[in-house]
Specification:
With 206 residues, the protein is an all-alpha fold. It contains ten helices and no strands.
Amino acid sequence: MARKTKEDTELTRQHLIRAAREAFLRRGVSRTTMEHIASEAGVTRGAIYWHFGSKIALFQAMREQVLLPLIDRMDDTLLVERAGDPLASIESFLYDIVRTLVDSVETRETYEIMMMKCEYVDEFAVVLQQILSTCSGIEGKLTLAYERARSHGQLQPGYDPSQLATDTHLFFIGLLHMWVKDTENVWFRHRATDLIRSHMRLRRRA
């Protein structure tokens, strides 16, 4: 019976997270109340508070449910894949992020909330600081990858790995913002692969 109760509790928790994601998508985070989430989930507000002490706790549980591109997902594979071709490793990493957004509805919706539906003020300011901290780590790893590319003689003469890392980071954040907004697949989604390829080609020594 205890096992069944634990399983039921986890199922309820996941149901509440899905309901919160739907409510955040529809109303935006700041305009969504616990009452809205309770209505979406078909439960009482007290039932939500039993699992999550606050809206920020529910928001954090939602974002921790998936690996968000350029927020959570940035491991050392960028530095070790295709050891003889560091630029190809960076390019492959960027492609994989786009594929994750295409293949995972939960990731895509959570990323849309993080980028477009949340005001990072009051108790949500800590989330913004977490994102900014991760961004610093991302640029550091990109810099290491570009330094390896330079040591392999792949970069155009005079290119600085640190500046290239910042440029790639900002380029890709901008692309993802527009990709998420292009829900009708008219402007950017179908061009994402070509844009990444062109971005990386400009770095490679002819």
